[in-house]
Specification:
Layout (H helix, E strand, L loop, with lengths): L1 H22 L12 E4 L34 H10 L3 E8 L5 E3 L20 H4 L29 H7 L4 E6 L4 H12 L3 H4 L2 E5 L1 H10 L4 E4 H14 L13 E5 L11 H9 L3 E5 L14 H5 L8 E4 L2 H7 L11
GO molecular function: phosphoric diester hydrolase activity
Organism: Bradyrhizobium oligotrophicum S58
Protein name: Glycerophosphoryl diester phosphodiesterase
Length: 332
C-alpha cells in the first residue's frame, strides 16, 4: 500500500511539474515591446458612472470638460492616435440610405437635437444634426458643446478614407444578423490590407453572420468570448488552444486574467499563435465588457513589463503611464 501511495505522490509531483513548466512565464523570453493601446470611445467626454444602465443618457451626466473632443468623431480619432493609441474603437449603425453612421447611441435624443432610433434615419439627415447638443455637466444649466457638433457625425466610409493606414475596433450596437451581413458587404469593398487592420465586436447574431462572410476578420461577441475563456480555463493548462479562441478579439478582465493559464506571457503567446489579439480590460462584475483600465491604480495591476493589449477610456492618462510617446500633435 505504501508503494502505491509513493507512486501516486510521484505521479502527482510530475503532473504538477508539467503544469508549472508548461504555463510559467518565467521561461518565456521577454521582448522589448510596449503594450498595444486600444482607445475605447477615443478621446471623449467622461461622465459619472454611478448607477449606470443601458438606458442612461451619459451626455446628461458629463463631468467637467477638460478638452473639446466628442466621441466617434474624426477629430477625436485623430487626437487618440496623437495621444498614443494604436487602435481606436467606434460604434456604427446602418442607415436607411445604405451607409453606416458612426455614433454611439441607439437613439438620437440624448446627445443630439434629433429624435428617434438612429438606424431609422438616412446619413444625409444625420449629418445635419448637432451631436454636441445634449452634453451638460451642471444638470442642464449650461450646454458647452451645443452648436459645436453640427455636421460632425461621420460615416464609416469617411473614417476609413480619412485613416487608411490606421487600426480600428468597430462596435455593432445591435443583435440583428442583417447588420452583420450589411457590414460584411461594406468591408468586403475595401482594400484587403486595410481590412486586416480592423476588428469587429457586437451581438452574437450579427457577428456570426460577419464571421461567415469574412472568416479572416478578427471578431468577438459575448458568446464567443465566454466560450473561449471558459474552455481555456478548463484545459488551457495542457498548452492546447481551444478552437473557440482562434482568430478573434479576446478581452480579458483584469480580475479574470490571473486565472488564465500561462498569464501573462504564455497566454499572450498562445493567443497570438491562434491568430487572436488579446487585451486586458477593467474588472468584470457581471455587467457588459466595456470598462477600460483608466487610472494609475488600474495600470498598477498589470504584470511588470506587460507588453500585451490594454483597453482604456482615458488614453490621454494611460498612454503616458505606459510610456507611450505621443505621435503627432499633443492632445489639448
Amino acid at each position: 500500500m505504501s508503494r502505491f501511495w509513493k507512486c501516486a505522490g510521484l505521479l502527482a509531483l510530475l503532473c504538477a511539474g508539467f503544469v508549472f513548466v508548461n504555463n510559467t512565464s518565467l521561461l518565456v523570453a521577454k521582448t522589448a515591446g510596449r503594450p498595444l493601446l486600444l482607445a475605447h470611445r477615443g478621446v471623449s467626454q467622461q461622465f459619472d458612472r454611478t448607477g449606470l444602465t443601458g438606458d442612461t443618457c451619459t451626455a446628461a451626466r458629463m463631468l467637467r470638460p477638460t478638452h473639446d473632443y466628442l466621441e466617434n468623431t474624426i477629430a477625436s480619432m485623430r487626437a487618440s492616435f496623437a495621444a498614443g493609441a494604436d487602435i481606436v474603437e467606434f460604434d456604427v449603425h446602418p442607415t436607411t440610405d445604405g451607409l453606416f453612421a458612426v455614433f454611439h447611441d441607439w437613439t438620437l435624443d440624448c446627445r443630439t437635437d434629433g429624435k428617434g432610433v438612429t438606424r431609422e434615419h438616412a446619413m444625409t439627415e444625420l449629418r445635419r444634426l448637432d451631436i454636441g447638443y445634449g452634453y451638460t455637466a451642471d444638470g442642464g444649466q449650461t450646454f458647452p458643446f451645443r452648436g459645436k457638433g453640427i455636421g460632425l457625425m461621420p460615416s464609416l466610409d469617411e473614417v476609413l478614407a480619412t485613416f487608411p493606414d490606421r487600426s480600428f475596433l468597430i462596435n455593432i450596437k445591435s443583435n440583428d444578423p442583417t447588420e452583420g451581413r450589411l457590414l460584411a458587404a461594406a468591408l468586403a469593398q475595401i482594400d484587403a490590407a486595410q481590412r486586416s487592420r480592423l476588428m469587429v465586436y457586437g451581438g452574437d447574431a450579427p457577428i456570426a453572420m460577419l464571421r461567415a462572410a469574412l472568416p479572416d476578420l478578427k471578431v468577438m461577441s459575448r458568446g464567443m468570448l465566454k466560450g473561449c475563456l471558459l474552455r481555456y480555463i478548463g484545459y488551457g493548462w495542457t498548452g492546447l488552444i481551444p478552437s473557440a479562441c482562434r482568430n478573434m478579439l479576446v478581452l480579458a478582465p483584469i480580475n479574470v486574467a490571473p486565472w488564465l493559464w500561462g498569464w501573462p506571457d504564455r497566454f499572450l503567446q498562445r493567443m497570438a499563435r491562434a491568430g487572436s489579439s488579446a487585451f486586458v480590460i477593467g474588472s468584470y462584475h457581471g455587467e457588459s465588457f466595456s470598462a477600460g483600465l483608466d487610472t494609475p491604480d488600474d495600470i498598477a495591476r498589470l504584470p511588470e513589463n506587460f507588453d500585451g493589449g490594454v483597453m482604456t477610456d482615458e488614453i490621454e492618462t494611460v498612454a503616458p503611464l505606459l510610456k507611450r510617446a505621443p505621435r503627432g500633435d499633443q492632445v489639448k
